[in-house]
Amino acid sequence: MVALRPRHMRFRIALATALVLTLAACAGDGPQSGSQADPEAGAPAPPAAEGGPLALIGLWTVEDTDEKPGTVLRIAPKKQLSLWRDCGTLNGAWAGADNLFLATLHGGSGGCFANGEPPAQLTPGWLLRANGYKPDGAALALVDQAGAVVARLVAGGKPKVTDGVSPEEAEPPVVTDEDRAALSADTTLPAGLAAVDRNALVGRWVPVSGGATAFVAFQADGVWTGSDGCNGNGGRWAAGPQGTFLATGGPSTLMACDGAAVPTWLSTAAQAGLADGQLVLVDAAGTEVGRLRKS
Questions:
Q1: pLDDT tens string for the chain (295 positions)?
Q2: What is the CATH number of the domain that holds 223?
Q3: 0.85 cut: is pTM over it?
Q4: Which pick of 85, 98, 106, 210 has the fewest CB atoms within 10 Å?
Q5: Is residue 4 situated within a structural domain?
Q6: Where is each DUF306 domain found (predicted)?
Q7: CA distance 19 to 255
Q8: In the chain, beta strands by DSSP E
Q9: Is residue 130, in this structure, part of any structural domain at all?
Q10: Cβ–Cβ under 8 Å, residues 115 and 127
Q11: CATH code at 76?
């Protein structure tokens, strides 16, 4: 003979079973924490498979600027950058760290220049204001010093290759293990150096020793000008918390002199710290590249 449960017990069991099934169904409605949504459902994919400045490498369609639709920004390893417009290609350099991004254009095809001559300010305003980056759905947003968005970079795009430009330059950039190591380097300041506040960098600095006429002047708007004592140069700079430091530069004359390679120090530096009032620039490998004092 089968024992029968009281009616109130049978009702509780049925209610518990229904609750379990309902929770299971709700859990299947969306992706679990740490998983990606079903790509066939049209959910946005992350902007890049790599983190930090590696996420910047690629071909990007530029949106939310005054650029024409279809303009492509190509960010490649070894600080190579190019902007692809209908008129041709503009070339320059970039630098990036966690949440920081700088770019400067300094050359390109004559098709983008009036009468074949580049304008006095080649870098467009939106790119000149870019000081950092952050995820923006399936895209990346370039932001200024205040965090305001100056451009959206949508993954993908097909650069328009004009006459005189190699099609290989328009291909998606390839990241090697060497590139990955360089862009993933530890940016912790070496012992004995104190992180320098960005505002404290503003001003004119000269080498601690040698290069009597060499200098660098950091402006509050993120522009720097300087010289190795014979050859002038300039570009953009940024400093982040914990001593992160970035700088881009442009082409320069190649006059030989007994100065100090201050522009080279800036372009190779990844950190900046203070020691006894001196500004110490350190590369991505943790090696000191130069020392300056405020003048």
A1: 434 444 444 434 343 434 333 333 333 333 332 223 333 333 333 344 456 899 999 999 999 999 999 999 999 999 999 999 999 999 999 999 989 999 999 888 878 887 667 777 889 999 999 999 999 998 999 999 999 999 999 999 999 998 888 899 999 999 999 999 888 877 788 999 999 889 999 999 999 987 789 999 999 999 999 999 989 899 999 998 889 999 998 766 667 777 899 999 999 999 999 999 999 999 988 899 999 999 9
A2: 2.40.128.270
A3: no
A4: 210
A5: no
A6: 207-291
A7: 80
A8: 58-63, 72-76, 80-85, 88-97, 100-108, 132-136, 139-143, 149-155, 194-195, 203-207, 215-218, 223-227, 232-239, 245-249, 269-275, 278-283, 288-294
A9: yes
A10: no
A11: 2.40.128.230
Residue 111 domain boundaries: 52-183
**Which long-range CB contacts under 8 A does 210-219 form with residues at least 24 apart?**
210/258, 210/259, 210/260, 211/258, 211/259, 211/260, 211/262, 212/259, 213/259, 214/259, 214/260, 214/261, 214/262, 215/262, 215/295, 216/262, 216/263, 216/266, 216/292
Give yes or no: residues 178 and 203 share one domain: no
In a domain? residue 141: yes
Q: Structurally, how many domains does the chain consist of? A: 2
Q: Are residues 66 and 168 located together in one domain of the fold?
A: yes
Tokens representing 181 are: 């190591």
